[in-house]
Amino acid sequence: MKGLAAFVMRGRLQALLVTVASAGSLLFCWIGAAVVALVTLRKGVGAGAWLLMWGLLPAGTLAYVVGDSGPLALLLGTTLLALVLRATVNLPLAVLASVAVGGLTGLAMMAFGGAYLEQIVAYFSEFLASLEQQLSQGGEPVMLARPNATQVAGMMGAGSAMTAVMCLLLARYWQAALYNPGGFGSEFRALYYPPAVAAVLALLAIGLASLGLEFRTWALICVIPLSFAGLALVHARVAHRGQGRAWLTGFYVAWLFFDPVKLLVLFAAIADSWFNFRQRWAAEAGKDLRRRGDDRHDDED
Predict the structure, then answer these.
(1) Does residue 298 carry a pLDDT above 60?
(2) Are residue 66 and residue 1 in the same domain, yes or no?
(3) Is there a single domain that holds both residue 22 and residue 76?
(4) Nearest of 22, 27, 23, 114 to residue 67 by alpha carbon
(5) What is the pLDDT of residues 196-230, one digit of tens each?
(6) Distance of CA 60 to CAs 19, 33, 103, 132, 191, Å?
(7) Separation between Cα atoms, residue 30 and residue 118, nearest integer Å
(8) Pick from 111, 106, 104: which is nearest to 79 by CA?
(9) 299 within a domain of the structure (yes/no)
């Protein structure tokens, strides 16, 4: 991946080729979004906007012909996050902006993508009906809840916001790998939200979830920044204890497949906002270093 980033940064033509080739693809649109973010972060708003305009052509064509606006939303959302990061040089604030990206994406889908949402709802209905038949064979009938258009719009908004943050982090990693080796790791591990921000995000999520089942997918948008803060906390703990990549790989496998792990990460981020675990770990590490220094001094005496 570093080789791809180096190729993109060689010049406008290389960046244009990669962006246009990937922006119109359902499978590789994340590469185009990350490339636009990288160019925006490194070369400025003008260069990023120029590349974005070209990327919108294949992404917009895909949305018009196929009806899938996912690549278009991802391209715009990632660019917005990159602009925030470029202007503020504040990664937590850029990740926090993903709430706006997810909300706007969901609202845009409800306003302009009604037909596409209905297609997805119909697809889910057919899939769940088939699953009900399989589960009901030889036993009592099983009834599964069907999502409606509002739920699907919230789901797509949350997915777009989550993917936009990951594309931004990939672009930031590329930037650090090319121009500031090791800088991304320390920046990501420091991702943290103060108690007021964490409380507002948690209350928004709880408030949306309390409105009913159809708004629970919208509540997920509000906890995306806290989820990434929790993942940053896990990385900071691993670095503090000197654990290797194998431990992180196992953790991410558990995080992807088990919802209780996701909840634990979320609660850890909220608790960290109040107790600042990283600061405590740094203090403990400082005490250990001083203790070792005193022991060494006593041995020399």
Answers:
(1) no
(2) yes
(3) yes
(4) 114
(5) 999 999 999 999 999 888 899 999 999 999 999 99
(6) 13, 14, 20, 37, 33
(7) 25
(8) 104
(9) no
CA trace torsion 104, 106, 109, 114 (10° rounding)? -140
131 falls within a domain? no
Count Cβ atoms below 10 Å from residue 134 Cβ, excluding itself: 8
- 181 and 213 fall within a common domain: no
Residues 26 and 77 in one domain: yes
- pLDDT-derived band at 285 (thresholds 50, 70, 90) equals low
| pLDDT bucket at 289, cuts 50 / 70 / 90 | low
- Note whether residue 138 is domain-resident: no
Q: Would you call 270 helix, strand, or coil by DSSP? A: helix
Residue predicted with more confidence, 154 or 127: 154
Query: pLDDT by residue (tens digit) across 138-161?
Result: 667 777 778 888 899 999 999 999
Question: How far apart, in Å, are the Cα atoms of 7 and each of 13, 185, 248?
Answer: 10, 22, 29
Amino acid 147: pLDDT: 84
Total structural domains within the chain: 2
Letter for the amino acid at 4? L
Position 280 in a domain: yes
**Does the pLDDT of residue 232 top 70, yes or no?**
yes
Check whether residue 40 and residue 164 sit in a common domain. yes
Domain that holds residue 214: 191-293
Count CB neighbours of 128 within 10 A: 16
- Look at residue 171 and give its three-state secondary structure: helix
What is the value of pTM for the model shown? 0.90
Secondary element (H or E) of residue 182: none
